[in-house]
Amino acid sequence: MYQHILYEAKGSIGYLTINRPKALNALNTEVLTEIQDCLDTQITPDEDLRVVIVTGAGRSFIAGADIMEMKDATVPEGHAYVARGHKVMDTIDRSPKIFIAAVNGFALGGGCELAMACDIRIASEKALFGQPETHLGITPGFSGTQRLPRLVGKGMAKYLILSAENIKADEALRIGLVEKVVPAEELMPTVEKLAARIAGNAPIAVRQSKVDINAGMDADLATGCRIEAEAMTACFASEDKHEGMTAFAEKRDPDFKNR
Ligand code: CO8
């Protein structure tokens, strides 16, 4: 169905693999269009799906936007490219599903930006991160100037973007760009275990926590706490809240119904 991505859902967990290994999974217009289509037609409408694992085929996660395509692009084409990239990142960020980036290799430029749009990043020891755009004559254009400082702070974001220096996985962990680093062979088992754990928690509470954190990070503390308080109503009114607490009292595992 798709030329440059693979998508498979196994129950509550989806696997989205960027599959253009000859170009180290660089995001050209076709790849971005296919990711968007997959988000809109496969992932969003799937009511059983809770978590999506995003990874790259071969030795790269995503080596950035496609430099060969951008090289001779006009200004309007550049704007269209940015808009297409932003739409993919926003769709992931605003999705009620939880996205985990399983960063298996190069996560550069648009690849680092896509990883940052995901909710959680787990990296292989072989991963390499960076925003090399200023060395190419552009700024990060798929939300890196905005998401990177929100994750690692203003100073470190400026260091990485202005220097265009790439960093290894252990440094990415140290600065908070990724949440965990594991040996390459343990990457998918680790991510799958995490995905299953998230998928096993109360769906309404998981969804709402993502909304609260994302909305709160862009607001002042008082507004964020109001968002949290309002969201709590939805959880308190849910059957799953009753089930979760009853299961605790009865010393058994909860059986959540997404209601
Ligand atoms: N775009 C297009 N092709 C790429 C890209 C890329 N980003 N990265 C790698 N490739 C291709 C190479 O051209 C090469 O193709 P070929 O075999 O036909 O020559 C193939 O992938 C393998 O690459 P290398 O031979 O270079 O492999 P190495 O192991 O020697 O090096 C690197 C791997 C270090 C990842 C190297 O390929 C590299 O530096 N790539 C570019 C990384 C980069 O600069 N990424 C940022 C791109 S800009 C960006 O993402 C901006 C996002 C916002 C855009 C909005 C603007 C409008």
How many domains make up the coordinates? 2
* Cofactors, ions and other ligands in the entry: octanoyl-coenzyme A
CATH topology of the largest domain: 2-enoyl-CoA Hydratase, Chain A, domain 1
* Overall CATH architecture of the largest domain: Alpha-Beta Complex
Strand order of the largest sheet: 1-2-3-5-7-10
End-to-end separation: 33 Å
For this structure, what is the CATH class of the largest domain? Alpha Beta
Backbone CA Rg: 19 Å
H/E series: EEHEEHHEEHEEHHEHEHHHH
The parts where pLDDT drops under 50 for at least 5 residues are none
Annotation field: number of helices: 11
Task: Please describe the biggest sheet, giving its number of strands, its sense, and whether it closes into a barrel.
Answer: 6 strands, mixed
- Helix-residue proportion: 40-55%
Shape: globular
CATH evolutionary superfamily of the largest domain: 2-enoyl-CoA Hydratase, Chain A, domain 1
Strand content: 15-25%
Coarse structural class = alpha/beta
The count of DSSP E runs of length 2 or more, i.e. the number of strands, is 10
pLDDT average, as an integer? 97
